[in-house]
Design brief:
- The chain has about 100 residues and is mainly alpha-helical.
- Helix content is about 85%, strand content about 0%.
- It has helices at about 1-40, 45-60, 65-80, 85-105.
- Helix 1 runs antiparallel to helix 2 (about 45-60), helix 1 packs parallel to helix 3 (about 65-80) and helix 3 (about 65-80) crosses helix 4 (about 85-105).
- InterPro entries: ATPase_inh_sub_z, ATPase_inh_sub_z_sf.
- This is DUF1476 family protein.
């Protein structure tokens, strides 16, 4: 009987870890898509865009990555003379996250 509970506990722990990993991958993908969009809005060339997206991907592993990325994009877009709000960036992120989830199905 004890083995049954141990097996179930391990199964739940494994499932929890898999869900966390999947959420991280989807969020990372959405962050990269958001950075790609921002690079296009700022008019970055192909090489600069690739570097910008890569740096955004690096940010994805940090705690509170989404809000940090939103703040960074807002600052970068405003510095480029683009009228942008945090709400519009957040909405874009949510759309990219929904697309990543749909593609993962």
């Amino acid at each position: 009987m004890n083995n049954v509970f141990s097996d179930r506990e391990r199964a739940f722990e494994t499932e929890f870890a898999c869900q966390g990993e999947k959420a991280f991958r989807l969020s990372s993908q959405a962050i990269r898509s958001l950075a790609r969009w921002a690079a296009g809005e700022m008019g970055l060339n192909a090489e600069a865009s690739m570097i910008y997206v890569r740096r955004a991907g690096d940010l994805a592993v940090e705690p509170d990555a989404v809000s940090r990325m939103e703040s960074r994009l807002l600052a970068d877009l405003k510095a480029s003379g683009i009228d942008m709000t945090e709400g519009r960036i957040r909405l874009k992120y949510q759309r990219y996250l929904a697309q990543a989830r749909a593609a993962a199905l």
